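Study this one:
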Amino acid sequence: MSATADMTRTQKAAAILVAMGKPSASKLLKFFKQEELKALVEGARLLRTISQSDLEKIVAEFEAEFTEGAGLMDSGDRMDTILSESLSPEEVNALMGIDQPAAVEEGPPPVWPDVEKADPVRLGAFLGEEHPQTAALVLSKLSPSAAANALLVLEKDARNEVVKRMMSMAAIPDVATGIIEEQLRARLLAESATRDTSAGQIRVASVLNEMDKDKLDEVMQDLERSGAPDMEALRSRLFAFEDVVQLTQKARVALFDSISTELVTLALRNAPPALTEAVLSSIGARARRMIESELGQGADGVNAGDIVRARKAIAAGAIRMAREGAFELPTVQSAAA
């Protein structure tokens, strides 16, 4: 008994379309109604291998010419191919009765661009209070420059731990990432949106750092009495040459290791003995002897302005190194303290 005897007319039509190939079938498909196309697709999925002789019988029944001599294999898959290249995905889904995915409710906007814009000092301070794994995840989401600036704020031990965790970090579950994003919005970005005074503090600190130590202390005392906000944050950005005595020995060694003996000698002209000893005790024996020899000759003929500029250059170097995470600056004490 011929295999075509059990085939419906829809299956026979699907067989002919598949046999025609994509170019011709694609043109014909546009003339079918949606119900007819759906029936054709369902018919094609039920087709088995059709021999050449059975195919010729089908063609004869429809009184059409057929020029390809090969039998048909995987008719359902080939019909899928024809449909996909002839109709849009939406049309195919509608044809097959596939429900369109429901519109995904938009969640909160991405948090990471705003985190990158945060002040590196404040971001670093925020991460310093978090678990190293949390800090590693946050930094791994940022651009290299933003992550580097925040890393420099962390203490050396914490920084090393965070970097190690960033290097070995595996895929983080979306749930965990979402929790951290919410914390960043609530604790870091919300505070920024409410009041971000870091830019103003930087501007004020750059002005105050140009003042002599006595004048700086006087201004800070006046600000204290007037109730100026964020005084602690402002103090963390201030440093004068005279504050070298408040640095740890390790910090002083790191600072003066990169400063020429000529600049150190100039800055120590007319300096108090305690300050001079604090500096000299932080440099090598040979450099110390050279500086002491120069200082022993007095400060006659040395321009006072050059001394001030040398001291400001060293103070600026200390601020830069602290910003890079080499050490922490001491808190500038107001005269009222």
About this structure: Confidence is low (pLDDT under 50) at residues 64-74, 332-337.
